[in-house]
Design brief:
The structure holds 2 protein chains of 2 kinds.
Chain A (H helix, E strand, L loop, with lengths): L4 E3 L2 E4 L5 E6 L6 E7 L6 E7 L2 E5 L6 E5 L5 E5 L8 E8 L8 E2 L3 E5 L1
Parallel strand pairs in A: 2-11
Antiparallel strand pairs in A: 1-3, 3-8, 4-5, 4-9, 5-6, 7-8, 9-10, 9-11
Chain B lengths: L3 E2 L4 E5 L4 E7 L6 E7 L6 E7 L4 E4 L2 E6 L4 E6 L8 E8 L8 E2 L3 E6 L1
Parallel strand pairs in B: 2-11
Antiparallel strand pairs in B: 1-3, 3-8, 4-5, 4-9, 6-7, 7-8, 9-10, 9-11
Classes of the chains: A mainly beta, B mainly beta.
C-alpha cells in the first residue's frame, strides 16, 4: 500500500521562475493538503483540495496555486519565485469522511538561487 | 500570531527515562490535537492524537495529555529509546481535524544511550 508520494525530491530554481510540484495521495484518500516548512519552523498550511476544488486556504499569496485531478493527485504551482520561497514543501492526504490524521509525504526540497 | 507554541527547541533524555514534550495553544476553537515525529529527509509521521472531549490518550509508550483550561498539551514517552531521537511537532485543528493543521515549531528530542 503506497503512501503519499511527492516529486521531484529536490529542485533548484532562480528568482522569477515558476515551479510545479506533484503529489499522489495515499491509496483510498480523497483530500490533499499542501504545507510549506521553512528551516527551523513547523509546517505552514498553504491550501487543501477536495473534489478538485480548493476547500481551504492559508495565508499565502496568489502566486501559490494548486490543482487536484480526478484521480485525487495534486499539483502545487508557485509563480514569480522569491528567495523566501526556499523551503521543504510537504503534501498530506486524508479521507474527508473520516477523522483519521493526515499522512505526509517526504516532501520536495525547493531551493531558490 | 503563533497559535501553537512549543517553547523548548530541544530536549535531552537518558535512555529508559521519561521524555516530556510540551505544547501550548491560544485558539479555543481547536478541538483536535496531534503529535508528529520527523526524522531528517523524511516527512512527518503521525504518532498520536487526542480529541478535546478527552484529557488523555495512550498508545503503547506514548501518552498525550490535554489540559483544556490551560490550553496545554504534553506528550510523554516512557521508556525513551535512542530510536525516539527526532523532531516532534505538535499540531492543532478545528472542525475535528478535517481541515488545516496548525503546527508548532518543533522540539528536537535526543535520547542518550
Amino acid at each position: 500500500d503506497a503512501g503519499v508520494t511527492q516529486s521531484p525530491t529536490h529542485l533548484i530554481k532562480t528568482r522569477g521562475q515558476q515551479v510545479t510540484l506533484r503529489c499522489s495521495p495515499k491509496s483510498g484518500h480523497d483530500t490533499v493538503s499542501w504545507y510549506q516548512q521553512a528551516l527551523g519552523q513547523g509546517p505552514q498550511f498553504i491550501f487543501q483540495y477536495y473534489e478538485e476544488e480548493e476547500r481551504q486556504r492559508g495565508n499565502f499569496p496568489d502566486r501559490f496555486s494548486g490543482h487536484q485531478f480526478p484521480n485525487y493527485s495534486s499539483e502545487l504551482n508557485v509563480n514569480a519565485l522569491l528567495l523566501g520561497d526556499s523551503a521543504l514543501y510537504l503534501c498530506a492526504s486524508s479521507l474527508v469522511s473520516s477523522n483519521q490524521p493526515q499522512h505526509f509525504g517526504d516532501g520536495t526540497r525547493l531551493s531558490i538561487l | 500570531d503563533q497559535q501553537v507554541k512549543q517553547n523548548s527547541p530541544s530536549l535531552s533524555v537518558q535512555e529508559g527515562r521519561i521524555s516530556i514534550l510540551n505544547c501550548d495553544y491560544t485558539n479555543s476553537m481547536f478541538d483536535y490535537f496531534l503529535w508528529y515525529k520527523k526524522y531528517p529527509a523524511e516527512g512527518p509521521t503521525f504518532l498520536i492524537s487526542i480529541s478535546s472531549i478527552k484529557d488523555k490518550n495512550e498508545d503503547g509508550r506514548f501518552t498525550v495529555f490535554l489540559n483544556k483550561s490551560a490550553k496545554h498539551l504534553s506528550l510523554h514517552i516512557v521508556p525513551s529509546q535512542p530510536g525516539d531521537s527526532a523532531v516532534y511537532f505538535c499540531a492543532a485543528s478545528a472542525h475535528s481535524g478535517t481541515y488545516k493543521y496548525i503546527f508548532g515549531t518543533g522540539t528536537r528530542l535526543k535520547v542518550l544511550a
